[in-house]
Structures are given as C-alpha cells and as structure tokens.
From TrEMBL:
Species whose genome carries this gene: Heligmosomoides polygyrus
Every Ubiquitin-like protease family profile domain range: 107-318
Bias type Acidic residues, positions: 61-74
Coiled coil: none
UniProt keyword list: Hydrolase, Protease, Thiol protease
Pfam families named in the record: Peptidase_C48
Recorded GO MF terms: cysteine-type peptidase activity
Similarity-based family: Belongs to the peptidase C48 family.
GO BP term, example: protein desumoylation
Region feature (Disordered): 55-86
Protein's UniProt name: ULP_PROTEASE domain-containing protein
Amino acid sequence: MEVSTHQNPSIPSFRGYSQCEGGSGVDFDAYMDDYTFHADFMNCDDECSSLGSSAVPSYENDSEGCSDDSDLIDDGSNSSRLRERADSVELTGSTEMLRIRFPFQSISVRLSDFLCLQDNDLLNDTIVDFYLNHVVEHILPDEPKQLLAAVVGIRKHMKSMFSNKRVTVLPSVFWHNLSILHSGALADEREANLTEDQKLDARFGDVLDFVEDFDFIDVDYIVVPVNEWEHWSLVIVCHPFTARARMLCFDSQLSEDPNNMQNIAVLCDDFLKYVWLRRCQKPLCSSERMRCIIPDRLPQQNNNYDCGLYIVEFSRRFLLAPPANLDAFDFGAEYPDFTVKNKRRDIQKAVLSLCSNRELWNPFMDLQDKKM
C-alpha cells in the first residue's frame, strides 16, 4: 500500500514551510496544534466524498515576506530551513492516506475522510465502508474455511477462500442506488405496460448488476449501511434464504421516524427475493416477508452527529457475539457495556495502523493524545 501525495488543483492545499524571520511562512509541525481542529478547516467539499467531507485550506509560501536581512545574513540557520523546506510534504483534501483491498471492495481513505473523524462531525461513506469491512476482515476471529463445491465457479471459490468468513458487507452507495432506482422505476411503471418480470428488472436489475460480484446466498450475514437525509442506520440480514432468515434493523434515532426502518426492511426484502430469482432461476419457496426485528433497548444518540459511530459499533458488537435467539433480541441485555465514547479514536487508529508510511500521519495522533 502506498500513500499518494499528488495535488488536485481543484482542492485547496496546505503546505508546510520553515518560518522565515519576519515572514509569513507556516511550519507544518508548529501549526498542527491549530490545523487539525480549527473550525475553518471543516468546510464541506463535495468532491472529496459523496456524503460530504472536509477540505484543507491553502497556505502559500510568501517569499517576499522575508526581510532582506534574513536573505543576506547566513548564520547557519538558513541552510537548516532550506533542508526543512525540501523535506516538507504537500497535503490536500484529496491526499490519499490508505488504499486497501477487501474481498469485495477497494477503498481509498483520503485526508478529507480522516478529518471527518474529529469530534462533532458526521462520519462519511468512506469511513463507514472502511470500518465495517475492517471489522469483518481484521477483528472477527477466523472461522474454518468454507470450501465450495467444484460446480461453483472458480472465481467465487477463490473469493470464499480469501474472505474466510461468511459475511458480506455492501457499500454505502448500494442503498442510495437501490432507493433511487426503485423510486424511479415505480414512477415509470404508471406510464408503461410492463409484465411482472419487466417491472422487477426495472426496479432492481441495474442494482443487481452493480453488486454482481457480491455474495448474497452462501453467507450467514449481509451488512447493509443505510444513509438517508444525512442520517446513518443499519440493516443486518441474518441467514438469508433459510427458514431462520431474519432482518435486524438498527437505528440510534428511532423516535424520529418509527416506520422508516420497516420501510427500509421491506425494500431490502424485495431486492433479496429478486437476487434469488435471477441467480437461482427460480422464485423462493416462500413468498412471506422476512421478519423484521428492531432490538429492544437499542442505545440512542443524544446529538445529531454520532449516528455513524453507532451503526459501526452496532455491527461490531453483533458480529462478534450474535444473540442465540434473534426473535427476543434485547440489545441492552446482550451488550450492557455498549459505548461509542472512544470510537472515533479507534477508527483513527485502525486507519493509521494500515498506512504504509505511518510516520507521515503520526502528528495527527499525537495531537489527539494531547486533546484527551
């Protein structure tokens, strides 16, 4: 894994410079105390993420700001400053901190994504996707490899060996595509004379193509992050296409719209029936809807920005220790010590632990340590 330091001209840049005596240069290390947590640096930049992210403002070197005396007199410190200037690294909102390949997703974490892990900020789609996959691939204990029958394609067989776990994590954009395309198809159906199969293809065909490489059938759990109106919720489909199939719905703001999770569950259930129909070339034996379960005593957030932290921790707790009886799922009883108090810090550590040039990003964590 490599960290890219290329500059996107459309995104303002931050440069580290040696402090010229009497000038306006900014030293990177000296400026870190104000840089990471200053509110001015948290302006939304749509180019950085589909769900919003933070841009890094521009600080350019003002060589004319240095006094003439400092240019003419070399007391030994100027050469040191020149070396510092040569060693400086240019960072922008699009600077890539980490690129990592998970079994079904390749994720690039940029500086703008990392900055949304500051206090009081909403987690964006990149961070949510990264951490949900990180839990499955790096936190869950390995289970015995599930070798598929020889009749299954070699590509799918290799994926099963690679993932080594029976969990599929769908990307955040999946729900966005599913809800938008489904709504558009319903509107078109009113003006078109379509068969039932054509209606299903119009509603779900493009979405199924989008997740063509994802395993939906030979898994124990399907994790679906949902973002609507800048609020994160979570669906976990348990034992899909079996008699034990259940759909768990997690939301840290249930009081806002009690029926919304039910509507989300219905759409997910319709899509999974379509997946079975197209991949197995036959309808499900049962046409009944999968039972939707909202756990009792589900922890609720007391602010408007921690929803992303809640859903990634909901997922981590559940996947590490699933309840034996999903129909009587009491979250408070199963996970009495649930908290998201240090979750931002945990995710920051997870990102940095996988960076190839971690020393470049250590100042961020050092600053966090001072804040705690």
